[in-house]
Write a structure and sequence with these properties.
The structure holds three protein chains of three kinds. By secondary structure, chain A is α+β, with helices and mostly antiparallel strands. Helix content of chain A is 21%, strand content 29%. Chain A has a five-stranded mixed sheet. Chain A starts with a strand and ends in a 5-residue tail after the last strand. By secondary structure, chain B is of the alpha+beta class. Chain B folds into three domains: 154 residues, Aldehyde oxidase/xanthine dehydrogenase, molybdopterin binding domain (Aldehyde Oxidoreductase, domain 4); 166 residues, Aldehyde Oxidoreductase, domain 3 (Alpha-Beta Complex), CATH 3.90.1170.50; 302 residues, Aldehyde oxidase/xanthine dehydrogenase, molybdopterin binding domain (Aldehyde Oxidoreductase, domain 4, 2-Layer Sandwich), CATH 3.30.365. The N and C termini of chain C lie far apart (55 Å). Chain C is globular and about 50 Å long. Classes of the chains: A alpha+beta, B alpha+beta, C alpha+beta. Chains in contact: A-B, B-C. The interface between B and C is large, with 57 and 59 residues.
Chain lengths: 84, 755, 167
């Protein structure tokens, strides 16, 4: 089905009210995916506050939430990285 | 915006050449102005009073005598900096770090500040501030801070990431776990298992220019800040939040920056200078002394790391585990978590696990230092790989190649890698002439790899074409090392004009939209991308103007080699219009010609490197001398090779200093004993040979030119490259960095006495 | 200002007068009284060389010299390197060889390098490295700095040869 994806969560993210390390989400962009997760799992907001980045097929996206997620892409949520 | 950021292979006219930077003349003549080089009429000298205790209750601060001293115009404490953070703990930590709020948390923590008419009066005023301290037990070592018996620094810290959650507070702010597979099964398969513990001491970014700013606040809440910073837009936002100012009313101008490396991505003196200025209603210039920089800004973590790795006789690593303990100074940080992400990132290891412990201690709040957290983890992992290689009788470089991560490998932090360059760098190292250079007595060679993420971020760029056809490129990312030339080159490349026709400058915060900081190796990647798009934007306008000038449809106009060319039927006899010609007529075809771009540059690609180090160890003194050093790193695309090489050499040198000499030395009293360049010994010119560099270019698919960040990766391999070289030169495996002469000598003596 | 002393000196060939407290360093006097901010403060304790100037031809850290000690003497800073609107060869080579990244240490290096070449027009790599060991750089790893000094030395020797030939 279009826009359905498996989102994997880094093992550092534990959703107290969540399903575990993979979640099925309906979304076309990062923003939609984040909104969907926050709706279903309120504890996800805490993760967002702490800082989250998204890996789509190995490329890391930190800021651009308009980024479209191609169907079939590997999507991973990882901690937000800062540099020096 | 509609611009495509995908990589397109092309032949370059300007990009890839070694042009001179436009700000070079100012810098070699002393004209360039850094943080301490600006002055304002009526300015006051700001100075900060700092705690001489590692941990103490501040019972009372009596500023009356200081305030009465003639020439003193304002004195501030935390009471002049109310907490406006609204529950944002991160911002509250920054505020408390800038000015103690009832408790001094480290030697050097700011407790008060003064602004006076001159240096002498300010110094005298500091002496007149009477602070009553009640000393508290302190802890400065990361392992000691984790013990049950350690004094707890913050009652609010309950370790995150532990199930079930602890019932008592401690100094452990978080536990992180990453990895995949079954490490027990993996170790069961191994023919050889190596287990070692490593320790790395705290180091500082060591920029030669101390923090400095000139702050001027008006009674209506408008303000100006001149400051040496890696990110004036972020500084503006943070200072505005902390002081309750409107963002648009706080104009921040970045001076030239005399080094940052992550250490100028945070505020320390700036909110204090603004508070002093607001109270005195006069400009305040606040410049840190060198000892203040060491004691009161943001060094990197000191660490303690356990690594266990198992391998089969054929060199396949079957399991790897790392437990990484990082201290973040007096406030919680994510440094150990970052370490978990990078520790095994260069390799494809089917069963791997990284556990990170983030710990607070009574030391300055840690700030990012060039590839934060990665160098220490690499020291531990890359050293262990060499020990493993020796145990199975295989060349260290071959063990690395056997297990190298490739496109399709799952990273330890979860996602699958796209195209990455680590194998390319290892193969280039294996073939490099350095590997065949003859080693003399007491000399040894070591190889090590490193990795850094590189980030993108928000960027905004303006491109304005003057009526004479010369171009102003206005950037918002601070130029830390010569990127102005690279940006001008990109603009020239896109527009099809000579490099000399483009001039790049850095704008203040009132002239552009938000730009993220120059950190995370993002400067060239993101500003470069915004420049490409701004130029393409301008080309769109140039084509429209040409179409108007010719009276043809704009769809019949193409841009080639710096000119508008009319294509299609009936236009063949129209001579092309150059950018100069179009610009000259711009006043009558629609006004000034400009291009603009705001982009969130993401997908920065990863930077991998492999280094080769030859060291000579003097068996009588334990002193290690670097004899030969080579950096091989994937840059994606080197816009200006001079400056890419410069990043490789600079990062490698910082890593070498970290490996051999640099460390924060704390006494039993919790005070920093070596806050100066004499005893905090960074590499000097006579310590080093020429540093050879090889730039590889594995294009980043998500940048129009294939650019990857380059600034940080080169600091990651040196600690282990040096450690591995020392092992081969002197036959001792060093597990404590820096591997200074006394430590190496002790190891040599221990080995000689045992054997 | 307490203990103010009037100092009459020569800076970069020009007569200069300033008043400073007796305990103020030459570095601070040059920066704040004479306005020559090309002299940089990196440490204030003579460990980094960013404040390098020459005093009667000798290379010194101006943070270790008192302002009042400049009385009646000749001071040269980075601002005095270029002659008649033209960059000194060293300055040009630093730019050409990308021997600077952030540039904060560059003034000190230029003064120190000129001092070296004035004493020894044909230094080998080791001599250059030891002569510059009193100047700290955190950005470059010194590689391109040494190349720039070697290139400048070569060009200066070539010019001297040519100018000698013309006589």
């Amino acid at each position: 089905m279009n826009g359905t994806m498996q989102v994997s969560l880094s093992s550092t993210f534990q959703l107290t009210d969540g399903p575990g390390s993979t979640v099925e989400v309906q979304a076309e962009t990062i923003a939609e995916m984040m909104a969907s997760l926050t709706d279903r799992y309120p504890s996800f907001q805490q993760l967002l506050d702490r800082g989250v980045a998204v890996s789509i097929d190995g490329q890391i996206f930190r800021d651009d939430w308009t980024q479209p997620i191609p169907s079939g892409a590997e999507v991973f949520l990882i901690p937000r990285i800062e540099g020096g | 915006m509609g611009h495509d950021q995908k990589y397109v292979d092309k032949k370059y006219e300007v990009v890839g050449e070694r042009f001179n930077r436009p700000d070079g003349i100012d810098k070699v003549t002393g004209k360039a102005r850094y943080g301490a080089d600006a002055s304002a009429p009526g300015q006051l000298v700001g100075r900060v009073l700092r705690s001489p205790h590692a941990h103490a209750q501040i019972l009372k601060i009596n500023t009356a005598k200081a305030e009465k001293l003639p020439g003193v115009k304002s004195v501030v404490t935390f009471e002049d900096m109310p907490d406006l953070t609204g529950g944002d703990q991160g911002l509250a930590d920054i505020l408390e770090n800038c000015m103690a709020r009832g408790r001094a948390l480290y030697d050097g923590h700011a407790v008060a500040a003064v602004a006076a008419v001159d240096e002498q009066t300010a110094a005298q005023a500091l002496k007149l501030i009477d602070v009553k301290y009640k000393k508290l037990p302190h802890v400065t070592d990361v392992d000691e801070a984790m013990l049950e018996s350690a004094p707890v620094i913050h009652d609010r810290i309950i370790t995150r990431g532990v199930e079930p959650a602890p019932t008592k507070p401690s100094n452990i702010s978080a536990r992180t776990q990453m990895g995949y597979g079954d490490v027990d099964a993996g170790f069961a398969e191994a023919d050889v298992i190596i287990e070692k513990t490593y320790k790395t001491e705290q180091t500082h970014q060591g920029y030669i220019e101390p923090h400095a700013c000139l702050a001027s606040v008006n009674p209506d809440g408008s303000a100006e800040l001149w400051v040496t910073t890696q990110g004036h837009f972020v500084f503006r936002n943070v200072c505005a939040s902390l002081l309750g100012l409107d963002i648009a009313k706080l104009k921040v101008t970045s001076s030239e920056i005399g080094g940052g490396f992550g250490g100028k991505t945070h505020v320390w003196g700036e909110p204090v200078a603004l508070a002093l200025s607001r109270k005195a209603n006069r400009p305040v210039k606040l410049v840190m002394g060198r000892d203040e920089v060491f004691r009161g800004t943001g060094p990197t973590s000191s660490t303690s790391i356990d690594v266990k790795m198992g391998a089969k006789k054929d060199g396949t690593i079957t399991a790897a585990v790392a437990e990484l303990r990082y201290q973040g100074g007096a406030f919680p940080g994510n440094w150990a978590m970052l370490a978990c992400m990078t520790a095994f990132a260069c390799y494809d290891i089917k069963n791997n696990k990284s556990i990170g412990w983030d710990v607070v201690v009574n030391r300055p709040k840690v700030a990012a230092y060039r590839a934060p957290s990665a160098p220490m983890a690499a020291f531990a992992v890359e050293s262990t790989i060499d020990v493993l290689a020796k145990a199975i009788g295989m060349k260290p470089i071959d063990v690395r190649l056997k297990n190298v991560a490739r496109e399709g490998t799952i990273a330890p932090y979860g996602p699958t890698y796209g195209p990455i360059g680590i194998e390319h760098t290892l193969k280039a190292v294996k073939d490099h002439p350095h590997m065949r250079a003859k080693l003399k007595k007491n000399q040894g060679r070591g190889v090590a790899c490193g990795f850094w993420f590189n980030i993108g971020g928000q960027t905004c760029t303006d491109l304005n074409i003057g009526v004479d056809g010369t171009v102003n490129l206005t950037l918002g990312t601070v130029d830390v090392g010569g990127s102005r030339s690279s940006m001008a080159m990109i603009a020239a490349e896109e527009l099809g004009i000579p490099y000399e026709q483009v001039r790049a400058n850095i704008a203040d915060t009132t002239s552009l939209g938000h730009n993220d900081m120059t950190e995370g190796s993002r400067g060239t990647f993101s500003s470069g991308m915004a420049t490409v798009f701004a130029a393409r934007d301008a080309i769109g306008v140039l084509k429209e103007r040409a179409a108007k000038m010719w009276g043809v449809p704009v769809d019949d106009v193409v841009w080639e080699n710096g000119q508008a060319v009319a294509t299609g039927e009936g236009h063949g006899n129209l001579p092309p219009l150059s950018l100069k010609e179009i610009a000259a007529k711009s006043g009558r075809t629609g006004g000034p010609i400009a291009g603009h771009n705001e982009v969130v540059a993401d997908g920065a690609g990863m930077g991998f490197a492999s280094h080769i180090c030859d060291v000579e160890v003097d068996p009588e003194t334990g002193r290690s001398t670097i004899v030969r050093y080579t950096v091989v790193q994937d840059a994606g695309k080197a816009i200006n090779p001079d400056y890419v090489e410069g990043q490789f050499q600079g990062g490698a040198t910082q890593g070498i200093g970290w490996a051999l000499n640099e460390e924060y030395i704390y006494g039993d009293d919790g005070r920093l004993q070596n806050p100066g360049f004499l005893d905090y010994r960074i590499p000097v010119c006579s310590d080093l040979p020429f540093i050879d560099t090889k730039i590889l270019e594995v294009p980043n698919p998500l940048h129009p030119y294939g650019v990857r960040g380059v600034g940080e990766t080169s600091i990651v391999p040196p600690l282990a490259a040096v450690g591995n070289a020392i092992a081969n030169a002197a036959g001792v495996r060093m597990t404590h960095a820096p591997m200074s002469p006394p430590r190496v000598l002790a190891a040599i003596d221990e080995r000689d006495n045992a054997g | 200002m307490s203990n103010a002393t009037l100092v009459s000196t020569t800076v970069n060939g020009d007569p200069v007068q300033f008043a400073c407290p007796t305990d103020e360093s030459l570095m601070t006097a040059l920066r704040n009284r004479v306005g020559l901010t090309g002299v940089k403060e990196g440490c204030g304790t003579g460990d980094c060389g960013a404040c390098s100037v020459t005093l009667d031809g000798s290379l010194v850290c101006s943070c270790l010299v008192l302002g009042v000690e400049a009385e009646g003497r000749e001071v040269t800073t980075v601002e005095g390197l270029s002659e008649g609107g033209e960059l000194h060869v060293l300055q040009q080579k630093f730019i050409d060889h990308a021997a600077l990244q952030c540039g904060i240490c560059t003034p000190g290096f230029l003064v120190a390098a000129k001092s070296l070449l004035d004493r020894n027009p044909n230094p080998d790599e080791t001599e250059i490295r030891y002569a510059l060991a009193g100047n700290l750089c955190r950005c470059t790893g010194y590689d391109k700095i040494v190349h720039a000094v070697q290139a400048a030395a070569k060009e200066i020797r070539g010019k001297d040869k040519r100018s000698k030939k013309r006589r």
